[in-house]
Every structure is written in C-alpha cells, then in structure tokens.
Specification:
Layout: H1 2-24, H2 28-56, H3 58-79, H4 84-120, H5 125-153, H6 168-195, H7 201-226
Helix pairs in contact: 1-2, 1-4, 1-5, 1-6, 2-3, 2-4, 3-4, 3-6, 4-5, 4-7
C-alpha cells in the first residue's frame, strides 16, 4: 500500500510538471531540468541510502525522508513561488525525500519475504514480489485517471493543437496540484509505514534470528541423516 501511494505520487509528479512549467511558470528550460531531477536525485541518494538504512533502519529512514518531503512540498504550497528557479531548488530537496523509498522498496520486499518465511517456514519470493509489482501497476494506472479528474476539477482546458488561455483560478490550481498531491500521497505512505507496516529494526533482527535458528536446525538434521 505504501508503494502504491509512492508510485501514484511519482507518476502524478511527472504529469503535473508538464502542466506546471507550461501553464504556471511558462518555462521550457525549467521543465527540462525538472525531468532531469528524477535521475539526479537517485544518483545523489545511492551512495548514502544503504548506510542510513543500516544505521537507523529502512522503515525509520523511509518515514523520516517522506515526512521531510511532505514538509518541503507543504512549504512550497504556502509560499506560492513565482520564480521557477526557486521552485526547482526546493523541489530538488522534496524529490530526494520522495526518492529514498524508491531505492529502499526492493530491500523492503526482501524483508517481507524473510518475515513470511520465518512465520510460515515457506519462502514465497515470486508471490510477494509479484504482489508488490501488481500494486505498482495499479498505482500507475490510478495516477492517469486521477490526473485527468483533478485537471477537470480545476477547470483546465485542453489546447487540442491551439493556444488556450487558462483562467487565473486554473493556473493557481495547477500549482496547488503540483505541491499538494505529494503532501497527500507521501503523507499517506509515511503513515502506512509508521503505523501499519510491522517490520522495523527490532522486528527485522528477530526475523533474522529465527531464520538463522531454522537454518542451523535444518543443517543439524541433514548431518544426522547423513550420519555425520
């Protein structure tokens, strides 16, 4: 569920950036830079993500970074920024907070697989990975529908090949969507991880201990059967 909301945010951010820089900022340069942030933030986070996760925990750091992103985008909404350069500077930090979970999610899946094995004594890699992939696909599909609905709500008029002057309310609505949707989606994902997802540092350590005990027991039984 957390991944579902993060994917919705990721997809909507990509869609909304187009409308934001075209309708609100009127800057193609800003739009190009915003698209690059999707890759730059991953490169910026990659060298540090694993170290932070090992020291503070995957769930704990993911919640903290998403709440940080919520605070950044919330501030951007109330600031009502008119300079696309200032917007991009703040957006970079918001994107880092949002992007951390996308690096950690694959480690989350491994933890879930291990936890499931510790409880059921069965390893279901394919089923659990497939379920998460399905959630991501659902998020991608939902984001397209949500984007269209919300653009209709704010009164956005499609250009359909010719220039259309959007109303002031619509232009401000585009800005609101670009800043508030991350607050809603990332806030929901953070709350899910904080209050629903059960695997913090302590629980993961307990899972690892159970699996280590199971492996030792299985190895002992193997040696007994082999007459060692």
């Amino acid at each position: 569920m957390a991944d579902f909301f993060v994917v919705i945010n990721q997809q909507l951010a990509s869609i909304n950036q187009t409308y934001l820089f075209d309708t609100y900022f009127h800057s193609k340069t800003g739009m190009a830079i915003a698209v690059m942030f999707n890759y730059i933030t991953v490169l910026a986070l990659a060298p540090f993500a694993t170290k932070f996760a090992r020291r503070f925990g995957k769930r704990e750091t993911s919640v903290a970074t998403m709440l940080f992103a919520v605070a950044v985008y919330g501030a951007m909404y109330f600031m009502h920024i008119t300079d696309w350069r200032v917007y991009l500077a703040l957006m970079f930090f918001g994107a880092i907070g949002a992007g951390y979970f996308n690096l950690m999610v694959w480690a989350f899946i491994t933890d879930v697989i291990d936890h499931h094995q510790a409880i059921t004594k069965m390893r279901e890699d394919g089923t659990i990975y497939g379920l998460n992939s399905w959630a991501r696909k659902m998020g991608q599909a939902a984001s397209n529908g949500i984007s269209g609905i919300l653009l209709g709500v704010i009164g956005y008029q499609s250009s359909a090949g010719h220039a259309v002057a959007q109303s002031a309310g619509t232009v401000n609505g585009v800005y609101a969507l670009a800043t508030l949707l991350p607050v809603v989606c990332l806030g929901a994902a953070a709350l899910i991880l904080l209050f629903w997802y059960p695997l913090g540092r302590k629980e993961i350590a307990e899972t690892e201990a159970v699996l280590a005990s199971d492996r030792a027991k299985a190895e002992g039984e193997r040696k007994v059967r082999a007459g060692v």
